[in-house]
Amino acid sequence: MDIIQDYLSLAIQVAREAGDYARNIQRSELKISTKTNEMDIVTQVDSRNEQTIRDTVLSKYPDHVFLGEELGSSESSDDFGFSHARVRWIIDPIDGTVNFAHGLPIWCVSVGVEVNGTMECGAIYQPNLNEIFTVRRGHGAFLNGERISVSRVADASKSLFVTGFPYNVHQNPESVIEQFSSFLYKGLLIRRLGSAALDLAYVACGRFEAFWEIGLSPWDTSAGQLMVREAGGRVTHYDGTDYNIYKRSIIATNGLHHEMISDIIEGNNIKTSGTSSESVS
Ligand code: IPD
Ligand code: CA
Ligand code: CA
């Protein structure tokens, strides 16, 4: 029996079910509340989706554990980055909640499966385009069943980049505003979609040449970072170290723009050292 394939099939199933449920909710039915500040919102669909995904997985694998945006960790340890659960499902029940709440169709459900500390597979589902991105470590990344690869465009002037901002962007954490302005002064074409998981999936399939962001959480990147790698791209922290989903900064590229982006970020004196889950790297 190929157990990882079973996990992947289940990840696809739960991502599709949750995404389709959310897509069929009327905007007028949404109950919106705030989290860390007025901009950081959540709907009843986010929590419902995460609970439903957990319940579905538990009905098949009662010993699996979970880490998700709305329900947190199902493990006893507070330090979710360093406990040793065997199979952990890392869930963003809606990535792009602000878009979702405003009726903008750019959001997705992201599910990654980590086995003994290694991300093995995952799925990102964007219901409004009926696009399911899937990945399995060592077996490639796929969009609706077709193998995908990163773009081969090396010329920055012919490239499209994407970034995102943390909900406390107004406090300018890690000089994120100066950093973004430096990218603008380069004259690069940059988008801000509002869904980090889709940003990564879109790098993986070649729609974007690169993505970077500070302040992300494991559920934002668990599946997408593996997709970029399996599609032939490169994923690191701002300081160039290997990417770890439990740390906060990410540069994900087709491999051809990585140094340029890292140099621009470093040029803004962004702090890049440290090893804890709170560190910038
Ligand atoms: C957010 C989105 C957004 C990113 C934020 C994330 P959420 O996730 O991925 O693109 O810029 O940093 O928190 O709150 O919609 O799940
Ligand atoms: Ca998210
Ligand atoms: Ca979310």
Describe the structure.
With 281 residues, the protein is of the alpha+beta class. The protein folds into two domains: 3-147, 2-Layer Sandwich (Fructose-1,6-Bisphosphatase, Chain A, domain 1); 156-266, 3-Layer(aba) Sandwich (D-Maltodextrin-Binding Protein, domain 2), CATH 3.40.190.80. The protein has helices at 3-23, 44-60, 97-101, 176-185, 196-204, 218-230, 258-266, and strands at 32-34, 41-43, 65-68, 72-73, 87-95, 108-115, 118-126, 131-136, 140-143, 146-147, 160-163, 189-191, 210-213, 234-236, 250-253. The chain has an eight-stranded mixed beta sheet, with helices on both faces. The chain has a five-stranded mixed beta sheet with strand order 12-11-13-15-14, with helices on both faces. Strands 1-2 form a two-stranded antiparallel sheet. Helix 1 runs antiparallel to helix 2 (44-60) and helix 5 (196-204) packs parallel to helix 6 (218-230). The structure holds D-MYO-inositol-1-phosphate and calcium ion (CA) (2 copies). One calcium ion is lined by residues 46, 69, 92, 94-95, 97.
Keywords, please?
binds D-MYO-inositol-1-phosphate; alpha+beta; Fructose-1,6-Bisphosphatase, Chain A, domain 1; 281 residues; 8-stranded mixed β-sheet; binds calcium ion; D-Maltodextrin-Binding Protein, domain 2; 5-stranded mixed β-sheet; single chain
SSE layout and pairing:
Elements (H helix, E strand, L loop, with lengths): L2 H21 L8 E3 L6 E3 H17 L4 E4 L3 E2 L13 E9 L1 H5 L6 E8 L2 E9 L4 E6 L3 E4 L2 E2 L12 E4 L12 H10 L3 E3 L4 H9 L5 E4 L4 H13 L3 E3 L13 E4 L4 H9 L15
Parallel strand pairs: 3-5, 11-12, 11-13
Antiparallel strand pairs: 1-2, 3-4, 5-6, 6-7, 7-8, 8-9, 9-10, 13-15, 14-15
The structure holds D-MYO-inositol-1-phosphate and calcium ion (CA) (2 copies).
D-MYO-inositol-1-phosphate binds next to strand 5.
